[in-house]
Amino acid sequence: MNDPDKDALEKFQLSGRILRETREEMKHFVHENQPIIEVCEKAEELIRKKGGRPAFPCNVSINEIAAHYTSPPNDDKRIPEKSIVKVDIGAHVDGYVTDTSITLCFNPEYESLVETAEIALEKATESIGPGVSTSELGRIIENTIKSRGFKPISNLTGHQVGRYLVHAGTSLPNVSHLLSSKIKIGGVYAIEPFVTVPNAAGKVENGEESTIFRLIKPRSQRNQYSKQLLRFIEENFKTLPFAERWLQGAVEKEHYREAFHDLLSSKALMNYPIFVEASRRPVAQAEHTVLIVTDGCTVLT
Fold first, then answer.
1. CATH number, domain 6-206+275-299, options 3.40.190.10, 3.80.10.10, 2.60.40.10, 3.90.230.10
2. Among the options 64, 99, 262, 277, which is catalytic?
3. Which listed residue, of 57, 188, 210, 277, carries a Cα 20 to 30 Å from 67's Cα?
């Protein structure tokens, strides 16, 4: 997107503040053996209470799961002991999206891994600015991670954000890249290094499970309950990702499963598979959303 106007800028800033406060509260909320659904619902509730709306479901991705796990309805999974837990949250105010994450470490063995993700994020925020190439930014992140004896995840990237768009245009690689574009003043970008251990594959693959969905195209539906569910999704989430938990009560319970299946099979909706580190090694993540200004960036989150 182009240079945000004053109104858009205020909404980005508010969205960022809501997320920053939520992230800090979540640091003290998450613990071992806790139901994952409790974490997801707490983060989403805090965002709403503070005056925003979730831009996507709270992701709680544990150990080798790098991203895209949120609790489905009635999830009985818990946070394992001695795990590392990535809590990735997004908020929007009137569609203006910000995105942030932290990794909580319940295993002393992985403290340095988590710290490396945070240091790589810090170096990237110090280096980003107008005219910086995305390849150069990727090189800085990659070198920072490798200098500490760890490995970046090569096929996960940061991304530009926009209005009702979590991924808007430019990607920010976490490794040096041949394809490159320039960072633009006024742009809003989420920088998110993903880090794994040195003997890992250093890339992710799709897992079998999908717990996050998004409207692609409102295709016509024959079934009245499918129509009703589609209308609910359009009105409430527009083009933003959502969880099935958020659809409860949108149509009568006995018709829900068929209606949801219709929307998926007609390709009105897409699903996001969970991302798993290919060699099943643990992954840490850190993330901020930044606004590009004349002399660098302002961290919104």
1. 3.90.230.10
2. 99
3. 188
